[in-house]
Design a protein that fits this description.
Number of domains: 3
Bound molecules: flavin-adenine dinucleotide
CATH superfamily of the largest domain: FAD/NAD(P)-binding domain
CATH topology of the largest domain: FAD/NAD(P)-binding domain
Number of strands: 18
GO molecular function: FAD binding; oxidoreductase activity, acting on the CH-CH group of donors, NAD or NADP as acceptor
Protein name: Geranylgeranyl reductase family
Number of helices: 13
CATH class of the largest domain: Alpha Beta
Radius of gyration: 22 Å
InterPro entries: FAD-bd, FAD/NAD-bd_sf, Geranylgeranyl_Rdtase_fam, Geranylgeranyl_reductase
Length: about 425
């Protein structure tokens, strides 16, 4: 097997996390090798909804080239409440892209900055030489070659083969999601229903459905907050249910593709031997909305910054990255995963909260996804809805004993 030169960093996986890390590191003059097992450009199951905080982390030329539509509003519809909450901002709350073009453009920018990219080069093995002291190297086997490096960024997606190869403690919870696209001219009904990205709660159990308008198509999808193996198998049935509920013919939805989404973070964001996890491999998604592109871009940047800041000292890199992830992700996660449990597993409580403070909560979710607030901020909000439930028990009780059945349509629009 051929052995090659020593790279400063080998990045496994060229999604938004890997390409962002590669770009930032190459810009600083580090020797970066980026590997992907797929042939780029490649398809990736994704709604392609770029929330504002994600868009801010994307190079301007990529946004200019790839954004198909910009939406200042988003609709949250609650079928069981027969209510829709519309949030409108004075900036693009959600922009839509096709991941086929977007990921390729992100990769191209990293290559232009000097990162070396190998297509169809799946990583088969990662060995950390733990005994050889701080200056020891990591050996990455991919595409029949061995690469030596000081650091590995594992941005290899939700399944994360690198994490498995290393046996790093995981702890991420993966949930299934499915999406497909319909041509705009074939579904005029969506012009009224989804002038902006819409999210439908209470149509499928333990999850939500979405419609994202792009330039010529709509992306339609569902995400199910259960574990694989229970209802995951019937995700296609839930998808069909949602598509029919929208009033669409299921056969019009093309390219239906599914993939897991991690909605909880990995126990350890890095291996002290020099491997840093980023993006879905780290488990950085919003636990409530399962939005992961911003987490991929931000964690890719944080991983690159930790390597730059650590300046060759592995312990320092490990410390800097751990602190950054703890500050930005873990502290937020405890509360947001608790809220996600309410939203997807206690629908009556969710509906009770939204019937009282739906507009406020929708605005908070939008602010979090825009990067202006954190869910933790809820705890310090004087009129916080959790406290309010305690203040208005009768109103709350009445609201949760009302009808909560799934499947009613757009009655309150
Ligand atoms: C149906 C669906 C809809 C979604 N919709 C949205 C949305 O609208 N907005 C949003 O923000 N998020 C959405 N997400 C989540 C989002 O897609 C992910 O969070 C995001 O893609 C994570 O980026 P990443 O770079 O970490 O991983 P990925 O984009 O998954 O990239 C990982 C890369 O690693 C490569 N790889 C894997 N194993 C190896 C290996 N052994 N060797 C080399 N390469 C390897 C893969 O080929 C892949 O290219 C959605 C997810 C799904 C499943």
């Amino acid at each position: 097997m051929k052995s090659s030169r020593v790279y400063d960093v080998v990045i496994v996986g060229a999604g938004p996390a890997g390409s962002t890390a590669a770009r930032v590191l190459a810009e600083k003059g580090l020797e970066v090798l980026l590997l992907d097992r797929k042939s780029f450009p490649r398809r990736k199951a994704c709604g392609g909804g770029l929330v504002w905080r994600a868009l801010k982390g994307v190079p301007a030329e990529v946004a200019e080239q790839c954004v198909e539509a910009q939406h200042r509003s988003a609709l949250l519809h609650f079928a069981s409440l027969k209510k829709t909450f519309v949030v409108t901002k004075n900036y693009p709350l959600i922009s839509t892209v096709d991941r086929y073009h977007f990921d390729y453009a992100m990769l191209t920018t990293a290559r232009q900055k000097g990162a070396v990219f190998l297509n169809r080069t799946g990583c088969r093995d990662v060995r950390i030489k733990r005994d050889a002291g701080k200056k020891s190297l990591i050996e990455v086997t991919a595409g029949g070659r061995r690469f030596l490096t000081r650091y590995v960024i594992a941005s290899d997606g939700a399944v994360s083969p690198v994490g498995r190869l290393l046996g790093t403690p995981d702890g991420r919870i993966l949930i299934p999601a499915l999406e497909g696209s319909v041509r705009k001219e074939e579904v005029p009904v969506l012009e009224d229903l989804a002038p902006s990205p819409r999210f439908d709660f209470g149509v499928i159990p333990n999850g939500y459905g979405w419609v994202f308008p792009r330039r010529d198509t709509y992306c339609v999808g569902v995400v199910y907050y259960g574990r694989f193996g229970d209802r995951g198998k019937s995700l296609r049935a839930l998808f069909r249910r949602y598509v029919r509920w929208l009033g669409l013919d299921v056969t019009l939805v093309r390219g239906v593709k599914g993939s897991p989404i991690p909605v909880s973070p990995r126990k350890e964001p890095a291996d002290p031997g020099g491997v840093l996890f980023a993006g879905d491999a780290l488990g950085w998604t919003d636990p409530i909305m399962a939005e992961g592109i911003s987490g991929a871009v931000i964690s890719g940047m944080e991983a690159a910054n930790a390597i730059i800041e650590g300046d060759g000292n592995r312990e320092e890199v490990f410390k800097v990255y751990r602190q950054a992830i703890k500050r930005r992700l873990f502290r937020e996660y405890a509360l947001s995963s608790f809220l996600a449990r309410i939203v997807y597993h206690v629908p009556k409580l969710r509906d009770g909260c939204f019937s009282l403070y739906g507009q406020e909560i929708a605005a908070i979710i939008a602010d979090v996804l825009s990067g202006f607030r954190s869910y933790r901020w809820l705890l310090f909000w004087p009129f916080n809805y959790l406290k309010a439930i305690g203040l208005f028990p009768m109103r709350y009780l009445k609201s949760i004993t009302g009808s909560g059945d799934y499947g009613s349509r757009f009655d309150s629009r």
